[in-house]
Fold Acetate kinase.
Amino acid sequence: MWTLVLNCGSSSVKFALLNLDDDRVGLTGLAERLGSAGASARLDMEGERRTADLRGGSYAEAFAVLAGALDELGVRTQVGAVGHRVVHGGERFHAPVRLTDEVLGEIRACVPLAPLHNPANIAGIEAAQAAFPDAAHVAVFDTAFHQTMPEVAYRYPVPGDWYRQHGVRRYGFHGTSHAYVAARAAQDLGRPLAELNLVTAHLGNGCSVCAVQGGRSVDTSMGLTPLEGLVMGTRSGDVDPGLHDYIARQAGLSLSEVTSALNKESGLLGLSGLSNDMRELEEAAGRGHAGARLALDVFVYRLAKQMAGMAVALGRVDALVFTGGIGENSAAVRGAVLARLGVLGAAVDDEANRAAVRGQAGRISAPGALAALVVNTDEERMIAEQTRALLAGVSA
Ligand code: ADP
């Protein structure tokens, strides 16, 4: 059976077609700039790249192109399941769930918690259900893995009614990736996941760390929204909550303008004044660009502090795990973080660290030091696996 994995954003859809029975990837692709005149799709299949204009720029059109590609591959009727990435499942969803009208309604009820993401996820699900009516559609939530966090980790010290009436608590995101790399790290360490205490760091454009105890999330750095925690490409991560009022008055900004600047103009971009892209910043810092150097230093310092903080949630740390575009590729960031985490017993093996790039993951810690690993994340595969497991359980 083939499983189609869809990740619908507000202006893009990422797709992957996977066959878990024999470990085959049928195609991968991306439709971009949806909703605008320049919308287009690219599909990588059978060793070549195809592109298509999507003149109307809708999800429906993107899925029509995808369906055409599935016909060409001769697998359209064998797509038994569609796994959808859904960003926010609130407190309602602790695990993947088969999509019904009732479930869609509950995802809709989570829109106020993720006003940018959930509406796009819902629109994508509806269009995909119309395009692939015979497949079982499953929602896999970014927040679900973190629903095991204890109350001490998920409550904010704010008025209790904010939590009870408005759901103000920490939810956490990137759950699919943290769960996947924790399981992979256990395999790489040759130990049962159930026995391990891991700190996983997902470092992409968005960044978060997670304390994983016996395969369950017990704390994470993102909170009510994906803005809390680490320095990210354009997101600030933690700031003083008093900052909003102060800068609104001083700079004459509205609350939504402040929020937008914290999401889109801050982080590595805000600190460097140059770029949100780690690769570009490493190059610029190498040439002596002071802003790029500062951005790297703050990124690493705050990341190391958060990772060390996760040791409190775990009590004992067995390994540190790096993943995501930065975690898998930046030896400089990993090396600098491990140097700051000597307090946990971390020490880097420089040669192994330099050698670890995407596709060449492995152990990067010095012999005798706290284990540190690079693991390649694969959210599409994890969504496909969870989708299959749910459907197997349902039909069993
Ligand atoms: P997303 O979160 O959008 O999936 P990725 O996981 O691909 O993004 O991560 C993107 C980040 O990874 C960017 O900051 C990019 O610069 C960084 N990155 C990718 N390759 C390298 C590299 N070789 N060295 C340093 N950073 C890299």
